[in-house]
Amino acid sequence: MSFFGFGQSADIDIQLDGAETRKMAEMKTEDGKKERYYLYYDGESVSGKVNISLKKSGSRLEHQGVKIEFVGQIELYYDRGNHHEFTSLVKELARPGELTHNAAFEFEFNQVEKPYESYAGTNVRLRYFLRVTIVRRLSDITREMDLLVHTLSSYPEMNNSIKMEVGIEDCLHIEFEYNKSKYHLKDVIVGKIYFLLVRIKIKHMEIAIIKRETTGSGPNTFNENETIAKYEIMDGAPVRGESIPIRVFLAGYDLTPTMRDINKKFSVRYYLNLVLVDEEERRYFKQQEITLWRKGERLRRPLQQQLMAQQIQQVPASQSKFPQSHPQGQPPELVSEIQEQQHPIAPQIPPNATAAPEPPSPQQSQSPMHEEAPEPLPSATVTSTTTHHATATTTPQPPPQLEPPDEDIDTPKLPSPPTEPPNSIDSPEEEFLEAQAGSPSEEEEEEEEERESAVKTSTQEPVPVAQ
């Protein structure tokens, strides 16, 4: 028989999937030492392989079945005989039979619910573990493997500041203020203390972080206080109106999230304890509860940034359906319109406005556009020119240069329409254009009229004429 040392026995080894890359965390044991365990989160699957190695080769091992359990339980140190299990899952690995050689069995607990965080305190312990059992008639062969579970929380929607006025009547009145009421485990506590009335001689002031562990219920309730950290924030007697700043970093301490009524067995709460000590060693204190929560790791943020960068790189590749010669992948029609807006075509500008004082060609002198004044064109002509250029710019060809139309050569020279405003007489450019554009027949008629008037004045007496 095995209990006499003559029977067959076996060693059990549990290997978790992804153990090489899985993160590990520390937790205290019952002895006060810290050990590292594989870290899991709520809703995460637990899978792996169970290896059974026989100690004596050539002999068989009879069993009533092989099973693996995923257990979550609460252990109270003052009641060690009773373990309170809140999670228990069982997988059967092998039916009753015999083992003649080493065997390996795979297992998987899919999306296991882990409602609470692992905790090891003064009077209570909450733990998760895998337990493999080879059921035998006289004594079972078991092996346990502890796992660590962290519960992540999101940023609280309401996180008001803490402000309270306390003191002793006619002796001491102080007002303390903390920036928040809920802090994550790596946060910083920032606050101020105002002295409104000081009639006692205060020697120094300190602030402490206290963890209060409550186990049991009713008359069997036990409270255990533990001072996590203590700071002296003031030394000497303060005066009225003085303010003392507070800044406490939580990252350097072994803290856990606040736990309230875990499975109706225990609670863990944290308090900020403000203590004032006078010269007679009397202590005045005020406790204020704060809430601690666990924040997600920052390692996930670069992964999201990489995914966003990949999406941004994929978007231009999908939109680049046009050749690279067009700016920003625009079609040719839009490119021509953009070029037209950036470099307008010359016919839209009146020629007399920017014309240099050079004698125009005979074709330009016969064109009605050069005979007009430098005022803007009428609305009818503007609409006609814009429609003409809109049709011209729909093609991707370069903007055409302005050439005078051929039909203007044969058209007779007409005076400017009466709807246009009269031209300025003092304009040298207009006088030059009129001198070049005037016909010789009009000058001869004027000379003849002058001659006739001179003959009449020489032959006739002067007669008064109405001007």
From TrEMBL:
TM region(s), chain numbering: none
GO-annotated biological processes: intracellular protein transport
Organism superkingdom: Eukaryota
Ranges of biased composition (kind: Acidic residues): 441-451
Keyword annotations: Protein transport, Transport
Biased composition (Polar residues): 315-328
Span list, region Disordered: 310-334, 347-467
Annotated family: Belongs to the VPS26 family.
Record-linked InterPro entries: Arrestin-like_C (IPR014752), Vps26-related (IPR028934)
One matching Pfam family: Vps26
Coiled-coil region list: none
Descriptive protein name: Vacuolar protein sorting-associated protein 26
Biased composition (Low complexity): 378-395
PANTHER family on file: VACUOLAR PROTEIN SORTING 26 RELATED (PTHR12233)
